[in-house]
Write a structure and sequence with these properties.
The structure holds two protein chains of two kinds.
Chain A (H helix, E strand, L loop, with lengths): L1 H21 L41 E3 L6 H10 L16 E2 L4 H9 L4 E6 H4 L5 E3 L1 E2 L6 H5 L6 E8 L10 H14 L3 H9 L12 H7 L9 E7 L4 H14 L5 E5 L5 H8 L9 E4 L5 H6 L6 E14 L7 E2 L1 H9 L5 H7 L1
Parallel strand pairs in A: 1-2, 1-3, 5-11, 7-8, 7-9
Antiparallel strand pairs in A: 3-10, 4-10, 6-9, 6-10
Helix pairs in contact in A: 7-9
Chain B lengths: L5 H48 L5 H5 L6 E5 L23 E3 L4 E7 L5 E8 L9 E2 L12 E10 L4 E5 L4 H9 L1 E11 L5 H32 L4 H13 L4 H20 L6 H25 L3 H9 L4 H12 L1 H17 L2 H6 L17 H10 L5 H34 L1
Antiparallel strand pairs in B: 1-5, 1-8, 2-3, 3-4, 6-7, 6-8
The chains are: A alpha/beta, B alpha+beta.
Chain lengths: 351, 421
């Protein structure tokens, strides 16, 4: 009998623990699962939520730094923007500074979201409804679509594209691929294309120049039946915008034999992907979440048409439990990432 | 000096016993503590998976495709909104549905596979212009599908400008946008997307082919080792090799699968890259040791006298195998099959190489696919890792594995009882 009781108590405490760990803040308790915490003996079990320091923010704690990996366009934009360009492209951290490197926007959000004393940055379009993190305003300006469009929010960058040079590279079906690639790029400036960008969190700054129907008329291949397969490469930050655009574009052109596959790995792969190719195959369109740099421009020919697709903002983020800061500036961020401001109390003082 | 009597000696023993009790208690306590730790960790893992994923494990998630399909509809180009209004009296009114009085449609919130709110068009009046919407790609009339949600609607206002209302901004915003519209310029209907149906079907196919390839080979091997093979050096070496190969990490089998089976299957069927067959052949390699061992153990339990009796009655070796050995080792074969299924469902590392990592729109025998386990890897490797969906898939895999292991227990129990009779 004793053993049975013990087992029951054990199960109850385990399930309680599991409940407190398993519930991420952005989702409600599951009503379907009955509450097992009513058995006697449970009251002695300290619930994790009751521990001090879990809800109250302890400013004497050290700041945990998070930064995307070298080569990320988001990283480049962020560090160039705050005025700490030394680490924008390489891991030239000051001595003694440890930085965790999440490899994607989502990864960044989930890591900072589970570290109350962390600070990081990510793309504005990704934040959406994520309640475990808090976006900081920059120089007193909250990052929104409006502040990005009017330019008052400083940490912003273009999502850029660059198309393969079909004339000087040999490719099967080159003319058709070139047509579709150019049509797809022009799709971003149609009424419908801009809506796709907006629906995925991207920000458009220029008015549409044409409609989807105009585009289909302009490129006869879109209403033919020729099979064309395109590949895109480059930035992972554009993934959301790109996928939404591809879904609409390929589903709603009369030619159903056109497919576009996105395999995004990072902005650094955009220009190499269309000029040299990754493992031998050249991609058709490369995307960058930063400007094309001089070294990359040198590789491009006149046929490599490039330009901006939409605008995105990079936002400094902290855990939602962090009550000490809500606004930050470039100088403070630089000092934080240089390791000069070690604790949250230091940061509050510096602000 | 008489005080040093036997009583002191017994005290010593008593103290010793006390000490021992203390020590025993400590050792027993520590074993209890460690097993408790194991149980707690197990409960935490299962609890985390269930609490995170349970909400996401919906019928829509299981039956829908990973990629989204989109249908964009508009009012035809010569459409003119009738200023006299339309008769929408046939619309039955419900409390939880919001209506656009101008266009005669009812909108309601639903959930997509990310548990985000999305808007469905649930009611359309017979007289509504929404019945005459045409597809943007070929201009044909299209009935609004009930299983697709409205991701946004772009309308043309009286001034000729475009105005877009997104699903995210809520129904009220969408209805007010509709009220200001004179024509529907673009309404994008999306299928659920993010589902696991293809991976689920592929997993079933993979299990089937893996069993077809591995069971005959494994049973053959087991019959050789358990029935024919003499107990000599060669047999012992073979046995230890079988044991060893069950310890090889599966990713190495995956490499072998990619290096040997992909070109092999490719040369026979003309496919390039991994497909279900290369995946099944690789899984066969992984499963063979388990199958050989399990079936052999079961063959060994058959009484020698039964086999001798069969042979003495004039039955040949082949007849003895098919009539005595195999029927009596059926429990081992079933166990091996179930273990194989469990292993196939849970395997991911080898299949990343041998099967592929592309979640396709439909299961294909000629190109790369994913199983459920690889699907988990895929959705966690993306730009926005979907932990909740991964947990939902884990719940499915977990349930299947639990059911399978219970089934093994049941089979063993039934056959044990049968034998005792």
């Amino acid at each position: 009998m004793k053993k049975v009781l013990l087992a029951c108590a054990l199960l109850a405490s385990c399930s309680l623990l599991a409940t407190s760990c398993g519930n991420t803040p952005n989702q409600p308790d599951n009503p379907d699962i009955p509450d097992q915490g009513e058995k006697p003996g449970d009251d002695d079990n300290p619930n994790e939520d009751d521990k001090p320091g879990d809800d109250t923010f302890d400013t004497s704690r050290n700041v945990n730094l998070y930064s995307r990996e070298a080569g990320s366009g988001t990283r480049e934009c962020f560090f160039e923007g705050i005025g700490y360009g030394d680490v924008a492209k390489e891991d030239n951290w000051e001595e003694g500074v440890t930085v965790s490197s999440p490899t994607s926007n989502g990864d960044m959000m989930s890591q900072v979201g589970s570290d109350p004393y962390g600070i990081g940055y990510c793309s504005l379009d990704g934040i959406g409804e994520n309640k475990s993190i808090k976006a900081l305003s920059y120089d007193g300006i909250t990052p929104t679509e409006e502040t990005v469009i009017d330019g008052s929010y400083a940490l912003q960058r273009n999502f850029n594209y660059v198309i393969r040079d079909y004339k000087s590279t040999t490719v099967e079906n080159g003319e058709a691929r070139s047509q579709v690639a150019h049509a797809f790029i022009e799709f971003f400036s149609t009424v419908e294309g801009q809506v796709q960008i907006q629906s995925a969190g991207g920000i458009v700054t220029e008015a549409p120049t044409k409609t989807f129907e105009d585009l289909i008329e302009e490129y006869p291949i879109l209403s033919g039946s020729e099979t064309v397969q395109l590949y895109t490469c480059g930035s992972t930050s554009v993934e959301k915008v790109l996928n939404a655009s591809i879904t609409y574009f390929t589903n709603n052109i009369p030619n159903k034999n056109i497919t576009i596959s996105a395999s995004q790995t990072g902005s650094g792969a955009a220009v190499t992907g269309i000029t040299e190719g990754n493992s031998g195959t050249l991609a058709d369109i490369g995307f960058l979440s930063r400007e094309i740099n001089d070294g990359e421009l040198a590789k491009l020919t006149d046929e490599n048409i490039h330009g901006a697709m939409c605008v995105d903002a990079v936002v400094a983020i902290v855990n939602s439990k962090n009550t000490s800061v809500s606004d930050i500036n470039g100088e403070t961020l630089t000092s934080i990432y240089k390791g000069e401001l070690k604790t949250w109390a230091d940061i509050v003082k510096a602000l | 000096m008489k005080e040093k009597n036997p009583i002191n000696f017994t005290k010593l023993i008593e103290r010793n016993i006390k000490n021992r009790k203390y020590k025993d208690g400590l050792t027993n306590g520590s074993t209890f503590l460690f097993s408790l730790l194991c149980v707690v960790v197990l409960c935490l893992v299962i609890g985390y998976v269930i609490f995170t994923g349970a909400n996401y494990l919906t019928p829509g998630f299981i039956t829908s495709n990973y990629s989204q399909s989109s249908v964009a509809l508009r009012t035809s180009k010569d459409f003119v909104f009738d200023e006299n209004g339309y008769d929408y009296s046939d619309l039955e009114r419900f409390e939880d549905v919001s209506y656009s009085e101008k266009w005669g449609i009812g909108l309601q919130y639903g959930k997509d596979n990310n548990q985000n709110n999305v808007i469905y068009v649930v009611q359309i009046s017979e007289n509504s212009p929404f019945n005459e919407l045409v597809r943007r790609d070929d201009g044909t009339n299209f009935k609004i599908p009930t299983d697709m949600y409205l991701s946004y609607i772009t309308v043309q206002t009286e001034l000729g400008t475009y105005k877009t209302a997104f699903s995210d901004d809520g129904i009220d915003n969408m209805i007010s946008t509709l009220d200001s519209a004179v024509s529907i310029y673009d309404s994008n209907f999306l299928s659920l997307g993010g589902g696991i149906s293809t991976s689920l079907i592929t997993t079933c196919w993979l299990i089937l082919f893996t069993l077809i390839f591995s069971l005959p080979l494994g049973i053959g091997g087991a019959i050789y080792l358990g029935y024919y093979a003499k107990d000599n050096k060669v047999t012992r070496i073979i046995r230890s090799l079988v044991d060893m190969s069950s310890g090889i990490p599966s990713i190495i089998f995956g490499l072998v699968g990619a290096a040997i089976f992909i070109p092999f299957v490719g040369s026979m069927t003309g496919t390039t890259g991994g497909n279900i067959f290369t995946g099944a052949l690789t899984m066969t390699l992984i499963l063979l040791p388990t199958i050989v061992k399990t079936v052999e153990e079961s063959i060994k339990t058959i009484p020698k006298s039964m086999i001798s009796a069969s042979l003495a009655l004039g039955a040949s070796n082949t007849e003895t195998i098919f009539k005595i050995v195999l029927p009596n080792s059926i429990d081992g074969i079933l166990n091996a099959a179930i273990l194989g299924i469990g292993r196939t469902i849970g395997e991911s590392a080898a299949l990343v190489f041998a099967l592929g990592t592309f979640i396709t729109a439909a299961p294909s025998f000629t190109s790369g696919n994913t199983t459920l386990a690889v699907h988990i890897w895929y959705i966690l490797a993306g730009e926005y890792p979907a932990y909740e969906q991964a947990c939902a898939i884990s719940i499915m895999i977990f349930c299947v594995v639990v059911i399978l292991s219970l089934l093994t227990k049941l089979i063993n129990y039934l056959f044990k009882r049968k034998r005792e009779k």
